[in-house]
Amino acid sequence: MEKNRYKSKSELVFEEIWERVTHGILKPGDRFSAQEIAEELGVSRTPVNEAMKRMSEYGLIRILPNVGYQVNVLRWRDIEDIMRIECLLETEGLRLNKNGFDSALIQELKDINRRTIEALERKDRQAYYRLTDEFHVRFIHLSGSRILQDVFVKNRHYAGWDDGKILEMTESLKELLRDHDAALDLLLEGRLDEAIENLKIHSEQSIQLVHQSLKNSKYPGI
Questions:
Q1: How far apart are CA 3 and CA 81, in angstroms?
Q2: Cα dist from 32 to 15, 27, 72, whole Å
Q3: What's the pTM value of the predicted model, to 2 decimals?
């Protein structure tokens, strides 16, 4: 299978709306119709409806018969579970690697992390979210397990669920991003257990920061 395989219109619509929902462009409670999305993206309503059915299965949107669609409000417990599952997959994934960690991939991850910090500093919301997704999807490749990579990407469909206010916490986010570099350096030095412990602490701090951000913005799921 080619690395950059052909994507159907339904898949492209799914990715576009998923990004809008999880990145706060479409907010919890917002309503929209298949016709609106179809006209905006230049496709028919069929791939839009197919994509929305898939999104409803993930719990990201609700289908409103004869009306359209509504962005769901995730409960805080759901958001917390998503973040904890992601940490579990990443840390246990590291233990699955029996052949040593690819130094080139680690350097690639460090470069992505650097560009993420730069995007944060210039307040480029779109680039920040895109690079954050890219980092975590690439990070799971350190496991060397294709099965785990597939499971991780499915869980990642729920990730990034916030209203964008978290980007106002620039310094706190930069500290969390520096944790990535610290963990990667530990992997390069062969200190796996320390890297995993670092990532677990990082996850707890990330959860606290997201909770505070959503609470400050009066997110309805809190």
A1: 31
A2: 16, 11, 12
A3: 0.81
